[in-house]
């Protein structure tokens, strides 16, 4: 893609570990942004519901710690996915649509992050979480089910922040899509 150097961070990490740093940091910062949304909408989710899914009692910043750890893991998965040859190739492909053809890798990674955040919302809180809560005895099920229905905004924000931080940290301009890691 032409003009890519104008839209990609010149200081970006490259090589085999860049996606690990970008994914972990993007996931942590995205989780903090999502956590702020949760604090504004329903503070009990961070304080009580998140520890409850592990059978833990609410204790200080335990919910925040678990939430950020979740974000880091999900950020690492995002980094792994967007650096795979098939997905990276799609992100770097020139297309016929004027809007998409003018967008650089940064905007495409932010879009990929948005899609990823919504996908995480559709899978984890809507499908996996109810099964998990039933398996650990149903503690906090009311809080969790209400949180799942209202967390689409938070997951979308998580994905956008994750994609933006990843794009700012990891230099994918010259990355060979055939390199496994």
How many distinct helices? 9
Distance between the termini: 22 Å
Number of strands: 0
What share of residues is helical? Answer: over 70%
How would the global form be characterised? elongated
Structural class comes to mainly alpha
Rg (C-alpha, Å): 18 Å
Uncertain residue segments:
1-11
How many domains, in number, for the residues?
A: 1
Main sheet?
none
Mean pLDDT: 79
* Strand content bin: under 5%
The helix-strand sequence is HHHHHHHHH
Keywords: Membrane, Transmembrane, Transmembrane helix
Transmembrane segments: 17-41, 61-82, 109-132, 152-172
Topology:
Blueprint: H1 4-7, H2 18-41, H3 44-52, H4 62-82, H5 85-92, H6 98-102, H7 105-135, H8 141-150, H9 152-169
Keyword list:
181 residues, mainly alpha, 9 helices, 72% helix, disordered N terminus, transmembrane helix, membrane
Can you give a write-up of this model?
This protein is mostly helical and 181 residues long. The protein has one domain. The chain has 9 helices and no strands. The chain has helices at residues 4-7, 18-41, 44-52, 62-82, 85-92, 98-102, 105-135, 141-150, 152-169. Helix 2 (18-41) runs antiparallel to helix 9 (152-169), helix 3 packs across helix 4 and helix 7 runs antiparallel to helix 8 (141-150). The protein is elongated.
